[in-house]
Amino acid sequence: MAFLAHPALRCPLDGLPLTQTQSSLVCAEGHVFDIGKPGYANLLGAQDKRSRAPGDSRDMVAARSAFLGARFYEPIADALMTQVTTRLDTGITVVDAGCGDGYYLDWIQNAAPVPVNTIGFDISKWAVQRAAKRCDGTWLVASNRRVPLADSSADVLLDMFGFPDYGSFLRILVPGGALIRITPAANHLIELRKIIYPALKEQPERASYPALLGIESHNRITYQVDLQSDDIANLLLMTPHMFRAPKDGLIKATSLAELSVTIDVAIDVLTLTT
Ligand SMILES: C[S@@+](CC[C@H](N)C(=O)[O-])C[C@H]1O[C@@H](n2cnc3c(N)ncnc32)[C@H](O)[C@@H]1O
Ligand SMILES: [Zn+2]
Description:
Blueprint: E1 19-21, E2 24-26, E3 32-36, E4 40-42, H1 58-69, H2 74-85, E5 93-97, H3 103-111, E6 117-122, H4 125-134, E7 138-141, E8 154-160, H5 166-172, E9 173-184, H6 190-196, E10 213-228, H7 229-238, H8 241-244, H9 247-254, E11 258-272
Parallel strand pairs: 4-7, 5-6, 5-8, 6-7, 8-9
Antiparallel strand pairs: 1-2, 2-3, 3-4, 9-11, 10-11
Helix pairs in contact: 1-7, 2-3
Bound molecules: S-adenosylmethionine and zinc ion (ZN).
S-adenosylmethionine binds near residues 99 and 145.
């Protein structure tokens, strides 16, 4: 799909504006970043990488994509859209930090009655490649720790099951702009967790936030889904459970033909105080 060069793009090396020349992005200091097929730019500096292939692996991204494609998180996308809709205005910019395969920005583009600029970035190139195949937009391989965007450039910032960096988030939000976060709540996937872990850890009920982010609303989305064995396998692979859980627990879970699980997430809306 087409890569859209947003005016807020900044060089990850010196913070200067980036402009598009054919198939690359260039800053005034001459730093050049290729726009790869299918329409994304890699703005991740070596200093932002803690491994050669940071973020979710190709298999994890494929599993998440398949799980989302099976529509289990549609109520979450709907709840997100309800929040985004109250802030929609022609030409606003919605940024998804840790955008995965672009599921939520694609949803917003399709559901919004007015044109919205979308910028999605993820530290995993596998995720961004999938996102850029899904729809037009400004898709970037980049890290939350050093977001290659101008100060005050996001009207709405999404953090969906991500790894927030509040220093970056405060910097890129416009004053009065909204950070929308979706995080797992206490009973998320509890039936699956009871099968794979010998004992369940208490989960913190509420996240805490920097003082500059005022809590506008805090809601829970809770419902039940019926999973078949392929869905269970995808769910295990797309979450940290595959790497954390004891082997016998994983064997029990992967041998299930079906399982009904609780989806339980928190949706927090925070605004940057001016
Ligand atoms: C649990 S997945 C959620 C993906 C997507 N938001 C969704 O809900 O479908 C977390 C994502 O964060 C990405 N990630 C991990 N560390 C990151 C960082 N420092 N900056 C940006 N993305 C990061 C991973 O590659 C992965 O795609
Ligand atoms: Zn530069």
